[in-house]
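We treat protein structure as text, and this decision shapes the records that our systems exchange. The remainder of this section carries one protein's record, kept here as part of the documentation:
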Amino acid sequence: MMVYASLGITDMLDGFLARRLNSESGLGALLDSLGDLCFIAFSFMALLPVLNLEAWHWLWILLVFLLRAGNLARIFIRQRRFVFPHTKADKITGFLLFLTPFCLCVMDFAHIVPFLCAIATYAAVSEWNPSPPNRRNREYKHQSGDQIDDGQ
């Protein structure tokens, strides 16, 4: 659990420090997004086999995955480049997913899954029609760090 906690905390701190120190870069943003993807994938591979999920849990997780994959594909088709969403809803979802293993010590997993799936679904659906980016609302970042409009 210590390794898991340190990986999650350093992941949260790197973006904050880059913005605070004015050292954001396109490569850093891309590596952060890829690191997030790997962290979530490995966490799922470690946790899902030992958890007793019902069929509707799997279907809901699949739905969220398909929504996110479709959103990435849609943006790639429009922008001709990969753009990873960094919305507040995504950050909240990621933080709650990070907390899940710690919550399993005190909560029943059957109560956690619907809550997490609902938050993740909201985050995925909200990416389909985001508000236009501006100085206060950085919805999307291109690899170069440029704010871009999703075309909507």
Summary: Strands lie at 83-85, 140-142.
